[in-house]
Every structure is written in C-alpha cells, then in structure tokens.
Amino acid sequence: MSENFIFSRFGRKYENQTGIGQLMEDLGNLRPGMSMLGGGSPALIPEVEEAWREILSKFTSSNFWDSLLGKYETPSGKEETLEALASLLSSETGTKIHKDQIAITNGSQSAFYLLLNFFSGHFEDGSFRKIFLPVLPEYIGYLDQPIYSNSFAYSLGQVKTTGEDTFRYELDPSSLENWDDEKNPLGCVALSRPTNPTGRVASSEELEKILSFSRKRNIPLFLDNAYGYPFPGIVYSEQGLFHKEGMIQGFSLSKIGLPGVRTGFVLGDPEIISALNKANAVLNLASGNLGQFIALEFINSGEWLRLSRDIVRPFYRKKRDLAISCIRKEWKNKIRYSLHESEGAFFLWAKFSGLNRKISELYPILKENGVIIVPGKYFYPTPVSQEPFAEECVRISFAREDQEIQEGIHKIGKVLSSFAE
Ligand SMILES: Cc1ncc(COP(=O)(O)O)c(C=O)c1O
Q: Which ligand 1 atom minimizes the distance to the CA of 253?
C-alpha cells in the first residue's frame, strides 16, 4: 500500500499490531513439541466429531446443496433454525420466546461487536456512555471492540480466598451501590458466564444484583454464554441458565466443537434483534448457511443435550481435574501460586506472587522453553492492564491432550521457579 495513503481514525485502530494480535500469531506458529496452553479453541473430542459427521452426511441431496451453498439466507437467519432455537430457549428459560427475539450471526464475536457499539460511545443526548464490566478480568475479545477508545468502565470485584491454593473473584456490591453515573455514565453491562479467562460462573445472586443495577439505569445486560447453557454447558458448579427480561444473551456453536462454522445466536427484545439483523445485512449481507443448517439438526435431534451433558462437560471436567492435580504436584513448594475456582469453561486462571519479573516479560522465556500461556494483563482494559496485579496472572487452557497439559504445567513450574524470590 502506498505510504501516502492515510488511515481514518477507524482504520488506525487496526493499522498497528496489538499485543494480543501478536500473541494470536504466536498461537498459529508453533514449533513441534510446544505445549500450547494458550489458545481458545475447544478440544477435538471424537464423539463430538462423530456427531458432526453424522449431521453433515445428511446434507448430500441436491435439495440440501442448493439451499446450503447456492443461496444467501435472509439477514435474520434461516426460519426453521430460528424457530428451533426459540422453542429450545423457551423450554430452557421457562419463558415464551418468539423467533423474532433471536438473531443468527457469524459467530458471537461479531454480534458482540455490533451490540457493544449499539450501546456505548456517543449518544443523542450528548453523553458518552461506557460498557460496564462488573468483575474483572473479562474476555479479551471485548476489549478492542468499541469504536471509541476509553469505552470501558469496570469494577475489580473482591478477592475471596476459598482454600489453601484457591480463590474467587466476587462481585463487589459496594461498587454497584456507589456507582457515580455523572462521572461514568453507562450504556450497557457485559459479562461472560462462564468467564473467559477465570472459569468463574457468576451466581444467580450476583446476576440479580447486576440486573437490578442495569434496570435502574435502563441499560441492557449482555450475558455471554459461549461456554455456558444451553450448549456447550461447560459448567461444573450448580448454576443454571439465567434469563430475565431486559437481558441480551449471546450463544455460540464454537465451544461445543464448531469454531470453524462461525455461527452465533443472540436472544433479545425484538427491536434490538431487528437492529442487529439490519446491521448484519450491512456487514455480511447474511450469516453463513452451514452453521444454521447444522444447528437445525443439532437442536431438533436433541444432540445438543446429549453432547453437552454426556460428552463435553465430563470431558472437560476430567481435563480440569488432571490440570489442577498436576499443578499441585509440580508447583507446590516451588512457586507461590493460587488458582481461581474452576467453575466452568476450559481455562485455569493462576495468580503468582514472589516472582521477580512481570508475566509479560516471562512470556517470551516460557515460549522459548516450549510452553505458551496467555499473560493476564490482556484480560484487563487499560489502564488496569498496567497495574502490578495484572502482571501476576496467566490463563492456561486445558483443552489439550493430557500429555501436553502435564508437560506444559511442568515447564511453567520449571521456568517460573527460576524467577521466584
Ligand atoms: C467468552 C467468549 N465469548 C465469545 C467468544 C466468541 O466466540 P465465537 O465468535 O466463536 O462465537 C469467545 C471466543 O473465544 C469467548 O471466549
């Protein structure tokens, strides 16, 4: 490109490589023998792959091919899939949900891009409103999405020690009670449940408090269920699906094993869904067909429940138990660490103390020694990402082969112990 071309402010946001962008490239350029505990991809589970093969084998008649590959769907999505999802969500939430409350998008990531920008930034009344993250850290993928910089407001939550080497970030009710709306006007609230990176599953009591906070301000609460209910249902605690009026829910086909089809769903009020569909038409004309066809079969056959409950959740629970016991074996008495309670998703969030280097400085050394993790600071918006505590944490994925998990944890222990004071 000519050096004379000048990017707009919007373009400049994407012109330079971001830290996380660099990291994502690292994840794609692995040396053989590397322990890849950094990525966000789900594991390849044979029983799940078999289910996709079975569904795809049904799409062989020319009828299917014509409509699957040969035509654009409408921007709102395939009618039958919308109906199937509305019926599933009606029974799962216990409220009557109509198909005009559901949008199908190219992955839930793109839905969040639109929704977060619908409800943050400059408003008609002259205000600049932010996205509130009630308990940090939060999903990395939200942080670069707002068009305007400085679009996040947050509460750090409270750190509660739950065991000898475990803790939990809890909602800090006083931060909600004492919120200064003059100083920090809000346009929406967002949280992932289970939370990527911590594996935290916000309790229904916490969600009630957050919902009442958002209702008081007449702003939507986005709940991102990418790892949660109804599928893939990677929740190890007793918590269930939480849905109430005024909420906008995000769902995804990715974490049950289909990240490549790029299909997500949004449940919300019809006016919001209608705006989302219009924006989807501008950006994409329509969402991809394959995920919509698979979803229809997946929901109508009941496979969503069998895979989530009987295969995927037990699979990750076993991996989680392996990773935690391996950490206890490898790290105890070598480094000072504490793990966030693992209540869902497929990550562990580890907090270290007594290291004489920042985690982001140790990242290249870990990489050199054959293990990739994600430094914690990327899960905090600026300026929190510069705080010392953000440099004491890492996210570790356990959606990997057992041996890779064990070797990776061993390598982390070995490297970090040489920087322990
Ligand atoms: C919490 C969370 N939400 C949303 C997404 C986006 O997923 P997708 O766009 O594949 O639906 C991810 C992906 O890693 C995630 O971790």
A: 11
Indicate whether residue 323 lines ligand 1 (CB < 6 A).
Answer: no
- Total residue length of the chain: 421
pLDDT tens for 111-134 read 999 999 999 999 999 999 999 999
- Please state which CATH number belongs to domain 51-58+67-303: 3.40.640.10
- Single-letter amino acid, residue 130: K
The fold of the 9-45+307-417 domain, in CATH, is Aspartate Aminotransferase, domain 1 (3.90.1150)
Q: Evaluate: CB of 192 within 6 angstroms of ligand 1.
A: yes
**187 touches 221 (CB < 8 A):** no
**CB neighbour burial string for 225-246, b if at least 16 within 10 angstroms, e if fewer:** bbbbbbbbbbbbeebebbbeee
Q: Is 115 in the pocket of ligand 1 (CB under 6 A)?
A: no
Domain layout of the chain by residue ranges? 9-45+307-417, 51-58+67-303
Structure tokens belonging to residue 317? 């629970």
pLDDT tens digit sequence for 10-40: 888 888 767 667 777 777 778 889 999 998 8
Whether 342 and 348 have beta carbons less than 8 Å apart is answered as yes
